[in-house]
Amino acid sequence: MLMATRPLVIRNAMTIDVEDYFQVSAFAPYIARSDWDGRECRVERNIERILALLAAKQCKATFFTLGWIAQRYPQMLRAIVEQGHELASHGWGHERVSDLTPGAFAEDIGRAKKLLEDLGGQAVLGYRAPSFSIGENNLWAFDVLLEQGYRYSSSVYPIQHDHYGMPDSPRFAYPVREGLLEVPVTTLRVMNKNFPSSGGGYFRLLPYALSRWMIRQVNAQDQQSAVFYFHPWEIDAEQPRIAGIDAKTRFRHYVNIPRTHDRIAQLLSDFSWGRMDEIFLPQLAAEQKARAA
Predict the structure, then answer these.
(1) Of the four, 29, 124, 132, 148, which is 20 to 30 A from 109 by CA?
(2) Which one, of 261, 231, 244, 204, lies nearest residue 23 by Cα?
(3) Torsions phi, psi of 122, nearest 5?
């Protein structure tokens, strides 16, 4: 008698972009970079909540962390590493790659990588561009990432968006240079169009059941690991409100924040999750081995 086989459980990548509420790109016209030090920082307490949530659900994740944050909260960085999570780079000061020259970008990501490695005591292999700001006009960024010792990037969002996106790029992990993998955040392909299904503001805006369904579709139909992301400030309903911002920015930033912690807790229960490096870097190693054969 043949035994029924259980369906393969695909492990997805849980990622956190470690920045504070006043550092988001949408607030750049309203908050000067020189004012950051005068703002109330809330990232440390929010990371503590996230670490507790991950521990309760027995999940590991990747923390794409700003050098600016790491420099001010070294104990927080060490706690992330000590609890078995991957430490990765979000650059130094949350500057869009599209606003930088190749030289300035190299300095930004090299400085962040060195500090994160010094504080965390482990190699930093991954990078995510602020606001997914690698696109068709600055593909040179991949050369710089490779030169600076990174092994993978998660910086391209294959959707159409008013601030970022490269809708015609591959939806799943692919080599962009020999030795460098690009791992886009997840989209669902419907009627020849990519729809965002990987977190951020869309996760807060859409009904949870719809977000869950989209990830399940990617796992079942595409047989691919999803890449989900969120920010510490997205679980912080008590964060200071920024005055004077336009209605569109206000809606995007604050919509459904009081519900996000519980939604993420449910998401952690509904799927299998892991670190970016453990899920995707074996693919890069296999491709390098195949080329060498």
Answers:
(1) 29
(2) 231
(3) -145, 155
The residue with tokens 């691919």 is 224
Is the model's pLDDT at 143 over the cut of 70? yes
Phi, then psi, of 271 in degrees rounded to 5? -135, 165
Give which of 160, 76, 61 is closest to 119, Cα–Cα. Answer: 76
Query: DSSP letter string over 131-158?
Result: GG---GGGTHHHHHHHHTT--EE-----
**Would you tell me how many other CB atoms lie within 10 Å of the CB of residue 286?**
10
Torsions phi, psi for 153 (to 5 deg): -125, 150
Say if residues 119 and 77 touch (Cβ distance below 8 Å): yes
Tell me the three state secondary structure of residue 95: coil
Instruction: Give me the half-sphere count of Cα atoms (radius 13 Å) on the Cβ side of residue 160.
Output: 4
